[in-house]
Structure formats: C-alpha cells, structure tokens
Protein 1
Amino acid sequence: MLEQVTKDYAAYFKLDVSEGLETVQEVIDNMITRLEELTSVVHMIKLKNSDCNSSVSDDINRYRGEVNTLSKKIVTLNEVIVILHQNVEKVETQVEKAEIYFGVNNDNKLTSLLRPFLKKNKDLITMSNETPSLETLTITSVLDNFENNS
C-alpha cells in the first residue's frame, strides 16, 4: 500500500516540462523576431536621419551668406521705416500748424478744397491770429542706408 501511495503521489510531481517550455519558447522566438524587426527599423531611421542632417547642414552652410545679407537688408528696411515714420510725423505736425493758422477744417478734404468757391466770404472759417513759427523742416534722408548696405 505504501508503494501504491508513493506511485500516486509521484504522478503528481511528474511534469511534462517540454510541453510547457514549447509555448514559452514560441513566445520568446516571437519576441526576438519583433525586436530584430524593430532594430532594423531603428537602424534605417538613423541612416535617414544622418542623411537629412548632412543635407540640411550643407544647405545651411551653402545659404549662410545669403541669409546674413537678407537679415541685414531687413534690419536696414526696419531702420528706413522708422526714419520715414519720423519724417511723416514731422510733416504732419507742420501741416496741422498750417491748417490751424489758415483756418482749414479737415473734416472732408474735397469739401474743404471747394469751400472757398461754394460759400460766401462771411461763411469761411476765421484764420488764427497767431503767426506760426517758421521752422526749418529737416527731413532725414534714407538713401544713406541703402548705399551703405548694398
């Protein structure tokens, strides 16, 4: 009887390890295959990336001078715009002083232009009694900017 019990319990401990290992081996093989595919894809990406890096670097080096020249021209144009804006402000200030002195109403340019012909003398806007100070209007030239940076 003892021998029978040991045989029964021994049957519990007998494992078919090869059957269990086959599925594990299949999973491992599938994983290795996927990792190899991923490695090849990563390798291709690295090659393409290095090709792109070299071509972009070559383009940057090739066009560096043109980009520098273009940026200098942009800076020059910005300076010209600032100077022109200042000149326009100076002229507008002088025009406003002249309009006040001559009594020009600036509501509608066409009607203010034709007002002396359409209205009688008594309807005209009265002129200012103050004489505007005659200032020499100095307008800064922008041509120097283009000659220096061409």
Note: The mean pLDDT is 80.
Protein 2
Amino acid sequence: MKRIYIFLLLIPFLSGCTDFLEPDQVNLVYNEVFWKSQNDAERALNGVYALYRGLMIDGNWYERGDVTTGFFNRGWNGGSSDALYRPGDFSSASTTQRSWGGLEGLSEWSDFYKVIAHANLVIKKIEDMPDDIFREGKKEQFLGEAYYLRALVYFNILRNWGHAPYISDAIESSTQVINDDLTPVLIGRTKDTDLSMKVLEDIEIAVQSLGYSLPGSSDWGIRASKGAAEALSGHANMWMYFLATRDNLNNPGQYLTKAVSSLESLRANGGYSLETYSDAGALSRLYKGQSSEAIFELNVSSDQNESYRIDHGGVVRLTSKVVSLDGDATKDRASSVNWVPMSQKALIYPDYDFEEREGDLRANLFFDAWHSHYNEPFSDVSSTSTDRTLVTWMKKYSMMTVDASRAWNEYSAYFAEANIPVFRYTDALLLLAEGYVKTGQEGNAIAIVNEIRSRAGLTPYSGDNLLHEVLQQRISELIGEGQIFYDMVRNNYFPNPQVMDNARYQQQGYYWPVSGNILVSNKMIAQTPYWNGKTSW
C-alpha cells in the first residue's frame, strides 16, 4: 500500500528539471555505484533541497497562501489569476469563472511527489549505508534533514489537498509500480488525519536527529536544523489539532500541547531574534537571506547559481515593479503585478493613518505607495487609476541583480536575489501566541503580541478578542509569505467572506481540486468532493 501509479511518480521523476536549477546530483540512476561515500550521500541530499527549491520557485506557495485571501488583486495586464480570490460561478457547465476549478495547473500535485520520490530514495539509501563511512554524527544529521524535507513536502500536500496518496517506499524498479499482469499499481487518497499523523512521525525523527544551527554559520536558515523541525512541528501539530477538533477525535488537545512545547523549545534554544523595523535596511536584512529570524528559507542567489530570471516567472514577477533597463518608466510593470486595493488595506494594517501616512511601520516597510486610494487597477487607459506611482505593490522580494548576459531588448532581465521564507521567527512567535490563547495562557500570548506591536510602532494591545488580534498580527507580518490562508482555514476566520462561505468550508472546499491528468491516469483517485462538477476539466 505504499506504492503509487507509475505516471504519478516515475514520469515526473525521470523528466527532471529543465532550467538552470537542475542539479546534477538528482541523477541517481546508477544506484550500484553511487552510494559509496559520505560525499555521495550529501550530494543526493542536496538534490532534495534543489528539487524542493525548484518546486517553489514559481510562486505557487504565494498564490495558494496569500492571493486566495482576497487581499491582493491582479493587475490590469498581468499578475495572479482572479479565480484565486473571486467567488466561483458554477451556474452552468459553460461558465468560465469557476474559481479554483478553473486553475488546473495549481491542482496538479505530481511535482510535489517528485520531491517525495527523491526524499524516499535518499532516506532508504543512507539508512543502508555503513555507519563507518560517515564522520561522527553525519549519517544521523543527513537522515534528519531528509526526514524533515519529506515531512515538509507532505505538509504542503496536506494543507493543499488534504486527502492525498501517501508513499514512503523508494521507487527503484518498475516491478514496484507494475503488477504481474502488467497493469499499473494504483493507490487512492489517504485520509487527511492519517496523512497528518505520518507527517508528525517524520517530524519527530527530524527533531531527534538534528541539532540547532549556529547564528552566522554558512548553513544558518538554509538547511534543516532542530529549530526548523520544531517550527514545522508547531505548524503540523496546530493543523492536526484543527483536523482532530473538526472530526471529533479523541484528545485533540494533545496536539495543541505538543505545538506549544515545540515552539517554546525553539524560542528558548534556537538562537533566533527579531529584526528591528526602525531603519531602511530592515527589508534587505529579512529577505536577502539568513537574517536573525531565518528558521528555514530557500536559498536564492545568482552568485551561487541558485536564482531565476524574474521575467520568466516566480514570486518577483507576480509582486514587484522593476526599473526598466532601457530607462523607459512605462516598462516598470506597474500594470502587470498584484497590488492591494484601498478596500483591503484596513484589513491588513488597521492602525495605519492615511492622512499622516504613518502609524504601523510595516505598511511602508513591506509595501510601496500604501497611502494610495486606488480601488481599480492602474492602466494608461483607466478612467480612475492613471498614476503608475500609486500602485500599492509588495516590496518583500524586490531584491534583484541584472543579468549581464541579457539580450539588448530584454528590459526586465533581472535575477532574483531574495530568499523564499518557509518559517521565520516572527511566524513561530505568533503561532506560539495562538497556542497560548487556545490553552488558556493569555498572559503569555499578550506578551508576544505586544512585542510584535511595539516593533511595528504600535501601542500595547487593549482589545477584547485576543485570538483575532494574534491572527491580525500574523496577517500584518506574514502577508506574502505563504501562511495567511492556512491560518484562516485553521481558525475558520476569513476577513473577506467572499473567498470562503460557510457551505464551502463545511464541505472542505478549502482543499484544492485534483487535476484532470491525475483523475484520468489513476481511477482510484476521486475528485475532492466539493469540486465535483465545479471544475473546467
């Protein structure tokens, strides 16, 4: 039962990456001669990191975790699909606005399973290697990293699709995926609570196998560590608490307790600290990479051949204006990026003073032109929004360098230079505050909330709904980092009600549909129930 249809795993695995992120170390077809040394094991492990980075480079984590909230709108000429945040029209089979059911590319999970396949192989092969070929502690460390990465990818799958196939065997032969009668081995979807338990098992191995990273070390924040595993434990246990409560399972509080203890350990022992927001260098420190808040992030650096051209895709293309390389201000992509309309701004920074253009420091730190009152996308032909300097766009990933080998007529030929955050310290602290609220430790939660508010230039908390305040601070801090929509699902709290009505929520419509390619190739995979009859495929 731990095998999966060949088209679901082997074909994506064998196809490999086709861009410059393709790592040589992913080619593991010569198993008999490859797994001989510690260096072999490390190269193979690096391949898992590279595959995961390649999976996340296109910005799907941002579109699923942020654009779905309704806080961002697409630009006049580009950006994310508005199907991510507008209610679907399912009135007839011919309608084109079918919400997520019109986004088959984001409904495809095969690339996630490509990473899983490689992680499975790395785990098996390293476990089988003799202990004496490794330096002291290295075998355990490598296995801890591999288990962490597999848990992380399955956690991504869990939050996106819920009920999804689970496979832990290393696929090394066609006999594992083809029956004796030459029919493919098939496997259906594993229930989300069972998949969640598998994630927690891998996390526990990672926590026990890894040590804390050292601040300032070369691996700080960009390789798995005990702190990264504890952050993942906090998130995964909070998600399991949500699922266990939803399904009335026995003792859901145990997962909440575990989340709190994991995050407390991270806070006490991880060596992390909050970055200050009081100077202009804060943005670069946070997102250039390996800041004091970096628990785990995906390295993006053109100097290390781990970057991507922003004009070819990725989160920078979706979010950032640029300076055109021919000096033409009209090519700054102002009409082609996601932006925040005025109607959404009070939901993101409710304490910002538009008349004085001050209040919450994060508004102007993380965004350009936050003071803009535009509710319509900028366009040169718009009747209301014609000033390109008044597009409110997110600056978090707007670090880039020019591609020296660009063609003469490539005006946005930049390499991305901002790391992709997976977990940062602010996220962990506010998740801990959420855990404190839910376990009755409100004093501890308020202390964290006030620390976050103080850094943002705000007065101490004085409201009457502490959980909502914690979730508000998560919105204000983590917008654009792939977390917010899952916070809303976990707490059934949607500031924009049009993105999730109660009927959809009760039918688990917060999970994504499955692509037609998967449904056709594996008859044991059924469509996510809410999406039956609601997709364009």
Note: Residues 101 and 129 are 45 Å apart (CA to CA).
